[in-house]
Specification:
The complex is a heterodimer of chains A (about 325) and B (about 575).
Chain A lengths: L1 H14 L4 E4 L10 E7 L6 H11 L3 E7 L5 H5 L5 E6 L10 H11 L4 E4 L4 E4 L8 H11 L3 E2 L1 E5 L23 E2 L4 E5 L6 E5 H6 L16 E3 L5 E4 L3 E3 L17 E5 L5 H12 L3 H12 L13 E2 L3 H7 L9
Parallel strand pairs in A: 2-3, 2-5, 3-4, 8-15
Antiparallel strand pairs in A: 1-4, 5-12, 6-15, 7-12, 9-16, 10-11, 13-14
Chain B lengths: L3 E7 L3 H13 L4 E5 L5 H10 L6 E3 L11 H16 L5 E6 L3 E2 L3 H9 L5 E2 L3 E2 L13 H4 L10 H14 L12 E2 L5 E3 H9 L3 H8 L9 H9 L3 E2 L4 E3 L15 H5 L5 E3 L6 H8 L2 H4 L7 H16 L25 E5 L1 H4 E2 L1 H9 L2 E5 L14 E2 L3 E2 L2 H6 L1 H11 L5 E5 L8 H5 L4 E7 L2 H7 L4 H22 L7 E6 H6 L2 H9 L14 E2 L5 H10 L31
Parallel strand pairs in B: 1-2, 1-4, 2-3, 6-10, 11-12, 13-18, 13-19, 15-18, 19-20
Antiparallel strand pairs in B: 4-9, 5-12, 7-8, 14-21, 16-17
Helix pairs in contact in B: 3-7, 7-9, 19-20
The chains are: A alpha/beta (about 325), B alpha/beta (about 575).
């Protein structure tokens, strides 16, 4: 495992040569800052709300890897004092789906910081997020000696065809997509890294009903008190050293956990699906997009009569999708 | 100057500590501040300079305070000595930390203590009588030595404790002392405190407590018992502890809760809880106005947090709760019933059952060809899909999800040897499960079917084997479910009695007495069918002893016994 971890780190260093700094504001990072790291491609439309959302939670600095966007992402971000950008045209897939690049950035800039690793379409929800800033959570985690915090990916989708209501830049995506599946998740333990493997939700139900083992993994550990020796191994699903994956209690109790609201299913999804099918840069040869393409020509509608309407984190807590643990 | 002096132990968030200290002195209370030596020199000097022209604030000698060690006691000793020496008017000394926040107006505290001039407020109980010890060291706190830091040298700490246990090393508790423990935040009278600090035996006491584990929770608590004339064993500071013995933080959203506390101060306050600091340090006369003290509510919230962290919600499997087998604290969250053989034996059993009980009655949820949800719907609560592949991918999760998603409504489903058997142990171990089995009833559907007899025979052999295995599971000694097993022959004899028993267990949902009975299928010829199986060499035994009603015609008559002539 140590070798695997070292290999990951070396790989990150090697792949870091593919990155060129476009805007480097990392000198302004102060020791107690909370950082956010993300890789993106053509997500400009999501960024205004994304930045607002995480700034309001208390993220102090954003580290972005731009993987060849052509929609003006870089121009939009240029000049923001709390954003640093790196640019690359290299293969996302060959960089272990962006993980190598981000591992490198974290190793370089996030040592000793709490760092949040999310995609531009993921909104982080944690217990008391409506009344306590992110720093309250990280302070509590520090005080409890916890180094990593899990937040399962929860797909949210609109009622009706996903492209029925076009998303506007700056809009809260939850205004359009605020339905989710509350109780069809399968959990298994990965014996290799000790992380969980959660599958289910609307994508498993619609695209992968006949090949459930291929359904996308929903377990994520996005918030980590980073150390330069740490490394993500596959997306943010698993970390090394393995102790960081012990975000679940096996003795009957509940540890604290959050949710990443995955707002992928907006009108942009259909365009993305077509593009990504061409690029074949996503996990498992874009199985998900292929499954979607196979599902036919009619517009995608994930809604069903048992879909739950999103209200707030307390609702997710009651439904058992996340937990306050012993944070009160 | 007031008669209440505040001793404040400070190590982080100095700006908040300063704010609180100013609040105390504004009410005329002298404050002695101890700053941990871990705070760097420039920070300390700046902090001290802020109080330069404040005669009511003094700084005591600095010690290194590490959790669980003597430093904290030493700090409070030096600060208390300074307080008693320099402020002769002080009658009560209140020990507080930098993260404490006064909840009620200071004047109320002063009046309260003035009315009780001889009372010491210190939580103090003997080790045998308290449940809150975390970490397994209770009496041993006082009888072992703890030279190593628990936080930094955990390995040595644990090894040394183990070693002392092994060789039976014991410290003698100094004569006259009875170990007591309690919250480290006390409020003592000058009389008691000076008696403790000026005791000629103090070097002996200090020497002893220096190697006691977490002495700040036992030093004053034990010694106060020697000198105090009146101990009120409770802390005036509200403080809640989690399952590891760490104090809970209070945040802005606890404001309404704290207003209903009956304590004078609370800790720990999160340093960035601006609203709490603004409310309670601002116009604090109004902060508590119009609220009835209701400390029970605070207790409940934090007790629930501990419960959630240590036991969790029964029957929930999620990203941060995946109990190992055996430590689930409830395999599922709600009672449910499994019926095996009933749909085979009765026509329309599902409709009848849901009509009689009002419960949700599913068909064979684990059937090989489809998931038979009630009403044969494609989806169920929680968007649970009827795809058999999704179900079989993780059938245990399927069942626990189903029960979790429909909590509050009793679920019933049919089961049989033709279904996916991977949930058998889960159900058997689950006290929520009520399993009723009519063994051998699967033969009825074979009997009714129109297949070739050779295929039927094969199928019967297969099903019998599966059901026999299942029954073996249900009769194992690890079973926690309520299991009832009848052979089919037994059941057919008097069907209503067992059904009534099963339904009685449903509780209030079920009717007192059944006025409609489910209709049994026509079993004419079934005995013969079994006999035919037997004749083919497949011995069906699970259904019990079923007489072949019409005896076979073409058996040769038994030869008559020959008469014997003697």
């Amino acid at each position: 495992m140590r070798l695997r971890r070292k290999r990951r780190i070396l790989r990150g260093m090697r792949k870091s040569r593919e990155l060129t700094a476009v805007q480097d504001n990392t000198h302004s990072i102060s020791p107690s800052d909370i950082l956010l790291v993300a890789t993106m491609r053509n997500e400009q439309i999501r960024l205004p709300y994304f930045l607002d959302y995480y700034r309001a939670l208390g993220v102090n600095h954003f580290l972005f890897v731009d993987n060849g966007s052509v929609d003006g992402t870089v121009d939009y971000l240029r000049g923001m004092a709390d954003v640093s950008i790196w640019h690359t045209l290299s293969s996302y897939r060959r960089a272990s789906f962006g993980i190598d690049w981000m591992n490198h950035l974290k190793r370089r800039y996030a040592h000793g910081h709490w760092v949040l690793v999310v995609d531009p379409d993921e909104l982080f929800v944690y217990p008391f997020c409506d009344s306590r800033p992110l720093r309250a959570l990280t302070d509590w985690l520090d005080g409890s000696g916890i180094r990593s915090f899990s937040a399962m990916l929860l797909d949210v989708y609109p009622k009706g065809p996903v492209n029925a209501v076009p998303y506007q830049a700056g809009q809260d995506p939850l205004e359009i997509a605020h339905w989710f599946d509350s109780g069809n998740y399968s959990i298994k333990r990965n014996p290799v890294y000790g992380n969980l493997w959660i599958q289910g939700g609307p994508r498993a139900r619609t695209f992968f009903a006949n090949q459930p083992q291929k359904a996308p993994a929903l377990n994520k550990i996005p918030l980590v008190k980073w150390d330069r020796r740490y490394s993500f191994v596959s997306s943010t699903h698993a970390l090394l050293p393995r102790g960081l994956n012990q975000v679940y209690e096996t003795n009957g109790g509940e540890k604290a956990s959050g949710v990443l609201l995955h707002t992928k299913f907006l009108h942009t999804f259909t365009e993305k699906a077509e593009e990504e099918l061409q690029r074949k840069q996503h996990y498992a040869q874009s199985a998900e997009y292929r499954a979607y393409a196979k599902s036919g020509a009619q517009p995608l509608d994930l809604w069903c009569s048992w879909s739950e309407k999103y209200i707030n984190w307390r609702q997710l807590e009651i439904l058992g999708l996340m937990s306050k643990g012993n944070w009160a | 100057m007031s008669t209440v002096g505040i001793v404040m132990l400070v190590h982080t968030a100095l700006n908040r500590a300063e704010q609180v200290a100013r609040h105390w002195i504004a009410a005329g209370c002298p404050v002695v501040i101890h700053v941990d030596t871990n705070v760097s020199k420039p920070v300390f000097t700046a902090f001290k300079a802020a109080f330069a022209d404040e005669p009511l604030v003094l700084f005591s000698r600095r010690h290194r305070c590490e959790w669980g060690t003597w430093g904290i006691v030493a700090a409070s000793q030096s600060a208390s000595e300074l307080m008693l020496a320099r402020f002769p008017d002080v009658r009560h000394v209140y020990l507080a930390s930098g993260a404490c926040l006064p909840l009620r107006p200071v004047s109320e505290l002063i009046d309260y203590l003035a009315a009780r001039p001889r009372t010491d407020f210190i939580e103090s109980a003997t080790t045998a009588d308290v449940p809150w010890i975390v970490g397994g060291l209770d009496v041993e706190r006082f009888t072992l030595r703890f030279p190593f830091s628990w936080k930094r040298q955990r390995f040595l700490f644990d090894r040394y404790v183990a070693l002392q246990r092994r060789i039976g090393m014991r410290r003698r508790i100094p004569s006259g002392l009875v170990p007591h423990m309690g919250s480290q935040w006390w409020c003592l009278t000058r009389r008691t405190l000076s008696a403790i600090l000026d005791d000629p035996d103090r070097p002996r006491h200090d020497r002893y407590f220096r190697h006691v584990w977490i002495p700040d929770e036992s030093y004053y608590q034990t010694l106060a018992r020697l000198y105090s004339s009146k101990i009120e064993s409770r802390s005036l500071t509200l403080s809640k502890f989690d399952f590891q013995g760490k104090p809970h933080n209070f945040y802005d959203d606890h404001l309404q809760l704290l207003r209903r506390s009956d304590c004078f101060a609370a800790r720990k306050i999160w340093p960035h809880a601006n609203r709490l600091y603004a409310t309670f340090l601002g116009d604090s006369a109004n902060a508590m106005k119009g609220t009835e003290p209701n400390p029970g509510k605070i207790d409940r919230i934090f007790a629930k947090a501990v419960e959630r962290r240590t036991r969790g919600r029964p029957g929930l499997y999620m990203q941060s709760r995946l109990p190992d087998k055996g430590s689930e604290n409830g395999v599922t969250c709600n009672p449910y019933s499994v019926f095996q053989g009933f749909t085979e034996l009765f026509e329309d059993f599902e409709d009848w059952l849901s009509h009689v009980t009002g419960a949700k009655v599913h068909g064979h949820l684990f059937a090989p060809d489809r998931v038979e949800f009630a009403g044969r719907k494609p989806l169920l609560n929680g968007a649970l899909s009827d795809s058999t592949r999704l179900r079989d991918y993780n059938s245990k999760a399927f069942l626990t999800n189903l029960i979790w998603n429909t909590r509050g409504e009793r679920q019933c489903f049919q089961f049989g040897p033709q279904d996916n058997q991977s949930i058998n142990w889960l159900v058997a171990r689950d006290p929520n499960a009520q399993v009723s089995v009519i063994s051998g009833a699967w033969a009825v559907s074979l009997f009714k079917s129109n297949k070739n007899f050779a295929d039927l025979r094969k199928e019967a052999a297969r099903l019998q084997q599966i059901e026999a295995k299942h029954i073996e599971v249900l009769r194992s000694r690890f079973v926690k479910a309520r299991v009832r097993i009848w052979t089919m022959a037994e059941f057919v004899e008097a069907p209503m009695e067992p059904i009534q028993t099963i339904l009685d267990e449903f509780g209030a949902h079920a009717q007192r007495h059944l006025n409609t009975a489910p209709k049994m299928v026509d079993l004419a010829g079934f005995g013969q069918f079994l006999q035919n199986l037997k004749n083919q060499g497949m011995h069906p035994y699970l259904m019990g002893d079923f007489p072949a009603e019409q005896g076979p015609f073409n058996l040769p008559n038994q030869p008559r016994k020959p008469y014997l002539v003697r």
